[in-house]
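thought: fold this chain, then report.
action: predict
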Amino acid sequence: MTSNQFQEASRVFLLLAVLTFSILTILGTAILLQAKLLKEPVLSMKGLAPGMSSPFFADLIGMELPGFTVEDNKQNTFSSSNVLTFLLQVLTNVNPQDPKSLLAGEVPGIRDDIVPLRKGIIVGEEVPPADYAPPEDAFIPKANEHTIPENKPVQPQTQTPTIAPNQKSAPIISKDGKKVVFIYHSHNRESWLPELKDKGITNISNAQDPTTNITLVGKRLTTKLEELGIGSSHSATDYPTAVKSYNWNFSYKYSHKTVETAFASNPDLTYFFDIHRDSQRRDLTTAKINGKSYAQVYFIIGHRNPNWRKNEQFATKIHEVLQEKYPDLSRGIWGKGANNGNGEYNQTISPNSILIEIGGPENTLEESYRTVDVLAKVIADIYLDAEKVNNNG
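observation:
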């Protein structure tokens, strides 16, 4: 082989090697991206838009709508540097143009992900709470379900617990005898498979019901707090029937109106609890304490609330008492951003506003009641301690 032939063969080999490497890189990137999106498609795609810059997102729209323009004389969004930056951010959550993203994995609250703020006593793998959208047909009104006429305004159904005729009403020892606790449910139809077995429901994603649902747990918590002398009220609003053209994705928009209305009518409200049922399996949502099974709890703090650390401090008080007196009942406090849900959860209204996940779809109502009875005692003690401090101060 002559020298020229050898050089030509070398160039061809080098070209093929570069081409092969490029193809493998593209395929590998596509596989990683597909795996990331398929892991939790709804949540991942929800977080995709916030990860784009406004000009990048606008240019994507402009590709489909030629008449849609934002700026002239600007750098091409689809330049190699911008595309590489976007791909790197999607795959690694690190933005080369944002130095703080390099620290996000180590400092809670910087990254817009689900992060543990306070860890519970872990049994097995540390798993964050889950919040999966129900099937599209889960909220189609049944023949026996009540619907709200379109021309009738919707008002939150604020309730106080009923007292049996032979039972004396518990004394309200909150300041001036006022209601200070408000309990509600953004996902009010979350239910449990053991309670729906007579209806033939066996899939956890279908554990939704218009009557046998998480509002019963909220009502129980309200009753127990009242019995302990803490003025409380409860909203059991069924949003799928109360809201025209109901959309599960707007759940916190609906509950925000409920909270606003409640606060407007009662400015003394100080503590707000949005009670949910988690979506994890039973082995991740159940605790054994003194031979009895309890529904475990997660506390959720929204990082879209600029003052979320104050809400976390309140949740930490409850979490630490549970850890001390009822080990394994709390699976910790978790922070969430817009990439993993609403990210605010009506928590800007008060530093004492938190979201509590109680149990999962395979727990029973009895297990949830046991947990709520414990929570009521802990919350009441924290409130009364705070009142003593205020009165002494």
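thought: worth noting. Residues 21 and 27 are 10 Å apart (CA to CA).
final: tokens above.
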